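REVIEWER CHECKLIST
Item 1: Sequence provided? yes
Item 2: Single chain? yes
Item 3: Sequence as submitted:
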Amino acid sequence: MQAAAEERNYACDIHAYPVAEAREHEKDADMVLLGPQVHYMPGKVKEDCPNCAVEAIDRKAYGTMDGKSMIDHVITVLEVKNG
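Item 4: Structure as written out by the authors:
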């Protein structure tokens, strides 16, 4: 995803953390992406991170490591969220 963001000249930092730590990183994040193994937890994460967009990563994109489609999705969601 980071490489895909750089190719698009989209400035961002991407980090991976356990869901249990989401609240600790909320102040530094605009969006939380959930891997397929925790795709069922958006409600909990939204409670912990009310100021962040929360999205599950598409299973196919995750499995094929398709960072381009995920960055495209992130950009779209954040543009809608931020108006």
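Item 5: Key structural point noted by reviewer: The first strand starts at residue 31 and ends at 34.
Item 6: Recommendation: ____
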